């Protein structure tokens, strides 16, 4: 899994240095993995350091004291820039959701636009596997998340979907992505595992006494999260073709 960390940091609560009003790629910024510099304390540095702690040690390790120690400051000085831990977590959520390469404009069919948003969302989450659950389980209504929502809606509206269908489709896509990513982060990846482990799991399923489970044990014993995500995205696109204007429908890939 790649760990590309080029991104733009929010510098004020609820705002960022640049927020595209349409489907534009987010600009780049410094990596949160880099050591804290001696520059003045700011909200940007605090969010950067907090994300680094979560990436290295997990969400449970994050505390205001730990964050202050990482930055080499007194804990109380953090409150001049953030309201508290919940505010820091909101900042991290916004930070990751802006770390997506959104399509500038939907070239080609709406199907390609949906794929771009779906895979961009997944890749941004996978860059921070320990922080991604934080993003997926918090509200996607912050200023940092709204460009993602705007881009998804723009893809559909620009290609003739009516407003109600566009909103339903957006919520369906979000539900699929959040659910599939949470499952991926909380389940093992069996792809490329040793054959002995696969055989042991297959044997366990075959002994379950459940006919359907036993019959499909060879397939249930392995999982490729990339392939599962692709299958789900394409299935959703197929379903949405029913609601696409006939003049806008494109051939199946």
The main β sheet shows up as: none
- Measured by DSSP, the beta-strand proportion falls in under 5%
Number of DSSP helical runs: 12
Low-confidence stretches: 1-22, 24-37, 249-253
Q: What structural category characterises the helix and strand content?
A: mainly alpha
- Distance between the terminal alpha carbons, to the nearest Å? 27 Å
Q: What Rg is obtained from the alpha carbons, in whole angstroms?
A: 21 Å
Shape: flat
E-strand count? 0
Secondary structure: helix percent:
40-55%
SSE order: HHHHHHHHHHHH
Helix and strand arrangement:
Elements: H1 43-57, H2 64-71, H3 75-78, H4 85-97, H5 110-126, H6 132-137, H7 146-158, H8 163-186, H9 195-206, H10 211-215, H11 217-220, H12 225-240
């Amino acid at each position: 899994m790649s760990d590309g960390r080029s991104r733009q940091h929010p510098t004020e609560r609820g705002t960022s240095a640049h927020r595209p009003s349409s489907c534009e790629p987010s600009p780049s910024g410094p990596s949160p993995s880099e050591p804290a510099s001696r520059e003045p304390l700011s909200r940007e540095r605090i969010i950067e350091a907090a994300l680094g702690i979560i990436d290295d040690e997990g969400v449970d390790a994050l505390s205001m004291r730990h964050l202050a120690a990482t930055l080499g400051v007194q804990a109380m000085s953090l409150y001049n820039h953030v309201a508290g831990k919940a505010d820091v977590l909101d900042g991290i959520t916004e930070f990751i959701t802006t770390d997506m390469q959104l399509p500038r404009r939907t070239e080609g069919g709406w199907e390609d636009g949906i794929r771009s948003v779906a895979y961009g969302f997944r890749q941004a989450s996978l860059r921070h596997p320990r922080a991604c659950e934080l993003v997926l389980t918090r509200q996607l209504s912050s200023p940092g998340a709204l460009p993602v929502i705007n881009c998804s809606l723009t893809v559909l509206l620009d290609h003739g979907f009516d407003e109600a269908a566009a909103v339903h489709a957006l919520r369906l896509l979000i539900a699929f992505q959040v659910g599939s990513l949470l499952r991926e982060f909380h389940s093992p990846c069996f792809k490329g595992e040793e054959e002995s482990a696969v055989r042991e799991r297959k044997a366990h399923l075959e002994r379950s006494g459940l006919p359907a489970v036993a019959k499909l044990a060879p397939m249930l014993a392995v999982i490729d999260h990339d392939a599962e995500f692709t299958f789900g995205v394409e299935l959703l696109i197929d379903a949405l073709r029913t609601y696409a204007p006939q003049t806008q429908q494109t051939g199946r890939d």
